[in-house]
Structures are given as structure tokens and as C-alpha cells.
Amino acid sequence: MLRFALELSALAAFGVWGWQTYGLAAAIVTPAVAATLWGVFAVPDDPSRSGKTVVPVPGWLRLILELAILYGATWALYSVDQVMLSAVLAASITFHYLVSVDRLAWLMKQNSR
């Protein structure tokens, strides 16, 4: 549940960044691109997802993608002077990965098929 909340928070953060930086088009396109990347590139049989994927990737690459999107959202908030929200999001992401050691270990063992 926390991971899903973090995903939604990241999309919202990209929307805020897009709106405040470039306007309406970026507020729509930026979160759409992030959501597309999140949904398309996945590890087959990932128990934290449906197990299905459009483009199978190895676990280490999926982890990099997740970290880039989630921590990228913290940067997006920070860059539009939402420092407190950025800090709360960063702390929440870090907490999530600290308590998700089992999933991290599983990801690191996975190779794309």
C-alpha cells in the first residue's frame, strides 16, 4: 500500500513540477511519461505487480527505474520550492525500501527472459 501511495505521490509531484515550470502541457505529459515507464518496463512475475509486463527487464534495471522516478519526484518538488514535501517524500521512499529488503533481494536475483 505504501508503494502505491509513493507511486501516486511521484506522479502528483511531476504534475506540480510540470505546471509550475512549463504549464499545463507539461503538467499532463510529465506524469504520463513517468507512469508509462513505470508500467511498461517490469520484471516478469513480480509479486508486487500483476506479474505481467510489456517489456521484460532484469531486476537491477527495474530497481534503477523505480529509484529514478521516485527520487526524481523529490527533486521535482525541491526544484519548485516544495522543500518540506520533498523531504517527506524522500524519507517515505527511503523507509519503504528499508522495509522492503525481501523485494530488493528478489529483484537483484531476477534476469530478463
Instruction: Sketch the major β-sheet.
Output: 2 strands, parallel
Q: Could you estimate the helical fraction of the residues in percent?
A: over 70%
| Strand proportion | under 5%
Mean pLDDT score, rounded?
A: 94
Q: What separation lies between the terminal Cα atoms?
A: 28 Å
Element order, helices and strands? HHEEHHH
Shape: globular
Widest sheet: strand ordering: 1-2
Radius of gyration: 14 Å
Number of strands: 2
Query: Based on helices, strands and strand pairing, what is the structural class?
Result: mainly alpha
As residue ranges, the low-confidence spans are: none
User: What oligomeric arrangement do these chains adopt?
Assistant: single chain
Count of helical segments?
Answer: 5
* Total number of distinct structural domains: 1
Give structural notes.
- This protein is mainly alpha-helical and 113 residues long.
- It has one domain.
- The protein has helices at residues 2-21, 24-40, 59-79, 83-98, 101-109, and strands spanning 41-42, 55-56.
- The chain has a two-stranded parallel ribbon with strand order 1-2.
- It is globular, with a radius of gyration of 14 Å.
- The mean pLDDT is 94.
Produce a short descriptive summary.
This protein is mostly helical. It is built from five helices and two strands; from the N terminus they run H-H-E-E-H-H-H.
